[in-house]
Write a structure and sequence with these properties.
Blueprint lengths: L1 E3 L2 H13 L4 E6 L5 H13 L2 E6 L9 H5 L5 H10 L4 E3 L3 H4 L17 H5 L3 H16 L3 E5 L3 H13 L5 E5 L19 H6 L1 H13 L5 H13 L5 E9 L14 E10 L2 E11 H4 L1
Helix pairs in contact: 7-8, 10-11
Bound molecules: pantoate (PAF).
The site of pantoate has 10 residues, from strand 2 and helix 7.
Length: about 290
């Protein structure tokens, strides 16, 4: 695996592969890798000739400085995991390399970023779009792989690709869960033993709510999920929205859409966890 810090070096490596006709699959990450990231690398390996992974903790997407400072950095371990996963190129740039000049771009995502993460983390998605577009310019991938755990991020990236006319195929990859159901996240390592045990309540409650959708209306299901998770003294729901999977706007009736997703953010003290569950997806039926 080549490990590069400089964009010129990345560029010459990628160009060499492209000259041979190789396709480039790209997995952007902020490091602190886990099996969820490795599933993206695996999918990229299946779909592309070479795989580029970036490890870059992007300062512009953190609306909370504490979260940025405490974001886990485990680069030695990441390198070992990527080597074992047969990644071809690791791009591990500095902030100056990604942003030689301040990125002042302000994106317009319409209503997509007015809800959920966009509402509770102002500026977050603007920062995500800045870095992903910078990385796309540097890596020039044919396809890029993103986890469905960050459901809203995926919608934002698809929109950015469309608006900026990138010729990059965005490939969504399913959530990877721990054995007890907790969605894998780099932030999970910050949970205390007690919080870690308790946080299983998030996925358990979401799964239970899927059964309830047969007999309860949306408002009742929302109340059930929020009350059950908040009944734990260690967890606090920040939001739980049931939304249309394309527009991300809240819906009030199961019959209102053929693609329905429940998205949740929960605090375990200072650690913020997100998860989601697809209630209905017409794509499955096609
Ligand atoms: O999902 C993430 O880890 C980050 O938001 C991303 C896409 C790597 C951009 O920094």
């Amino acid at each position: 695996m080549d490990i590069v810090v400089k964009s010129e070096e990345l560029n010459s490596l990628v160009e060499r592969h492209k000259a041979k006709g190789d396709t480039v699959g790209f997995v952007p990450t902020m490091g602190a890798l886990h099996a969820g990231h490795l599933s993206l690398v695996e999918k990229a390996r299946e779909r592309a000739d070479i795989v580029v992974v970036s490890v870059f903790v992007n300062p512009t997407q953190f609306n909370n400085q504490d979260d940025l400072i405490n974001y886990p950095v485990t680069i030695e371990q990441d390198i070992e995991m990527l080597q074992a996963a047969k990644c071809d190129i690791l791009f591990n740039p500095t902030v100056m390399e990604v942003y030689p000049d301040e990125d002042k771009r302000v994106f317009d995502f319409g209503m997509l970023d007015k809800v959920m993460e966009g509402e509770f983390r102002p500026g977050h998605f603007n920062g995500v779009a800045q870095v992903v577009s910078r990385l796309f310019d540097l890596v020039k991938p044919d396809s890029a792989f993103f986890g469905e755990k960050d459901f809203q991020q995926l919608a934002i990236i698809k929109r950015m690709v469309k608006d900026l006319n990138y010729n990059v195929n965005i490939v969504p990859c399913p959530i990877v869960r721990e054995a007890d159901g907790l969605a894998m996240s780099s932030r999970n390592v910050r949970l205390s033993e007690e919080q870690r045990k308790e946080s299983v309540l998030i996925s358990e409650t979401l799964f239970e709510s899927k059964i309830l959708m047969k007999t309860k209306n949306i408002k009742e299901v929302i109340n059930f999920v929020v009350d059950k998770i908040n009944s734990s003294s260690l967890l606090r729901v920040e939001y739980f929205n049931i939304v249309d999977g394309d527009t991300l706007q809240p819906i009030d009736d199961w019959r209102r859409s053929e693609y329905i997703v429940g998205c949740i953010a929960v605090f375990a003290d200072k650690v913020r966890l997100i998860d989601n569950l697809i209630y209905k997806n017409f794509h499955d039926a096609c």
